[in-house]
Specification:
five-stranded parallel sheet, Rossmann fold, three-stranded antiparallel sheet, 5 helices, alpha/beta, 25% strand, 184 residues
Length: 184
């Protein structure tokens, strides 16, 4: 279901960048907040079923994975530790801080979309002596198929691009919106 959302009545401070103003001027809702929540619920059930016996370390990639990681953490019903890892300006995770915590454990990554190539995660997993690695994303391919052995799954399978909301931002804005939107 697609709903048009008109943000045009909003007034913006002059310090809000033009790209962010255009973003809020008119957008099409692609996924409602309820659809996002249901997708994350399904993924959390899958995570719980597959990883509850492993004492995993859930690593959220920042800044984009902040909202998604939080949504996921509230839903998994097994003991796990959580840590956040920053990404550089190119989106490459700075994983050095996670080495000691992840040693000989299962490492589960939460990201809004694939933040870096699987090679980055595989190299890190070998260096940190990670027992097993899985990547969970808010958005993934519409086919629902995993792109590789290390991919754990997506909450929402879609081919839509350039979405914002639910942790995804444009020029740093829009990540706080509860659904997923596409600028027109």
């Amino acid at each position: 279901m697609r709903l048009d959302i008109d943000f045009s009545p909003l007034r913006f401070d002059d310090s809000v960048p033009a790209a962010a103003r255009r973003l809020y001027t008119r957008a099409q809702q692609i996924y409602s907040a309820e659809q996002v929540e249901r997708g994350v619920d399904r993924l959390a059930v899958r995570l719980t079923a597959n990883w509850q016996n492993y004492n995993p370390l859930l690593i959220t990639l920042l800044p984009a994975g902040f909202v998604f990681g939080g949504m996921l953490m509230r839903r998994v019903v097994f003991p796990c530790q959580h840590m956040a890892v920053a990404c550089d300006k190119r989106g490459v995770p700075q994983l050095e801080a996670a080495h000691a915590a992840a040693e000989r454990r299962v490492a589960l990554f939460a990201a809004t979309v694939a933040a870096a190539s699987e090679d980055v995660f595989e190299q890190w997993a070998q260096q940190a002596d990670v027992a097993e690695l899985a990547i969970f994303t808010l958005l993934g391919p519409a086919s629902g198929a995993d792109s590789g052995a290390q991919v754990g799954g997506a909450a929402i399978c879609t081919e839509e691009a350039d979405l914002f909301g639910s942790g995804l931002a444009v020029a740093g804005y829009g990540a706080n919106l509860p659904g997923l939107y596409k600028p027109e």
